[in-house]
Sequence to fold (323 residues):
Amino acid sequence: VLCLLRFIQGIGLGGEWSGAALVATENAPEDKRALYGSFPELGAPIGFFLSNGTYFVLESFNDTDAMCAWGWRVPFLLSAVLVIIGLVVRVHMEETPIFRMAQEQKKVVKSPLTEVFRKSWKQVLQATFLVAVTYTLFYTLATWSLAWGTKTKREGGGGLGFTNQEYLLMLMISICVFALFIVLSCLYADRIGRRRVLMFSSCALVVFAVLFPFLLDSSLVGQKNFAATMVFLCLGFALMGIAFGPIGAFLPELFDANVRYSGSGIGYNLAAIVGAAFVPTIATWLSKNFGVHSVGLYLAVMAVCCLIALATCKETKDVDFTK
Fold:
C-alpha cells in the first residue's frame, strides 16, 4: 500500500514542481525571475514545518502507544485540506503568457518527452546533478540526522541521545533558516547571476561535508549537545536554502519554451532518484560501518558532481525567456 501511494504521489509531484516553477517565472518581471521562482521552493520548508509541527504537537499530548495506534494517521488526514486548497487553485489557474504565445505561433510540440531527449539531453543531465545535491543534503539533514540524533550509545552507532520531540523541535527551528536563505539566495541570484550563487553553495557544501561530522561525533561533543547540533542543522539548512532557491528559475531557463515544462520536470525528478532515493539507507549503512565522517564524504561527492554540472552551464540570468 505504501508503494502504491508513493507511486500516486510521484505522478502528482512529477508535473507539480515544474508547473509551479513555470507559472511563477513566466509571469515574473525579467529582473525578478529568481525571486518569483523562490515561491514554489518555499513549499518545501513550509510543508516540512507543518508536518513536523503536527507530529511535535501530537507527541506532546500522546504516548508512544497512542502514536502507533492512531496518532501517525492524523497528519495524513489533515493533508486532505491542502489537497482541496490545491484543487481550487488549479481550477482557477490560467496558462502562462509565454505558453499561450507558443500556442499561437504553433510551436507547441506533440511529443515533448521525445523532443527533450533528442535536443536537450545535455540540459536534462545538468539539471539532474544541479538538484541532486540538494536532495542528498535535505535527506541527510531531515531523515538520517533524525535517526542518528535520537539513537543512544546503547543502541549502537554512537548516536546523540536526543528524544524524538527534542530533535523535531530543533528541526523546526532550523527549517525557518532554510526558508530565509531561499529568499536571500534568490535576491542575490537576480543581482549577480544564478551560477555564482550556486558555485558558492557547492564549494561551501564541500567544506561543510568535511566539517559537520565533528559536530555529530558523540565521542567529541558528548550526548545531547544542543549547541553543536543546532550549528549543524542551521548551517546545513542555510546552505540548503542557497543551493535550492535559485533552482526555481535556473532549471526552467536551461530549456526552450516549447519543452521547458517537460525538461525541467524530468531533470528535477531524476535528481530525486539520484540524490534522494537511497540516501537514508546509504547514510545509515555508512555511519554504522565507517562512522559519521563517511556520511560527510558521501555529501561532498554529490557537491562535487553539482560543481561539475555548473561548470558546463552558461549563466541564464539574461536569457530570452520567450524562446
Summary: The mean pLDDT is 88. Residues 77 and 271 are 29 Å apart (CA to CA).
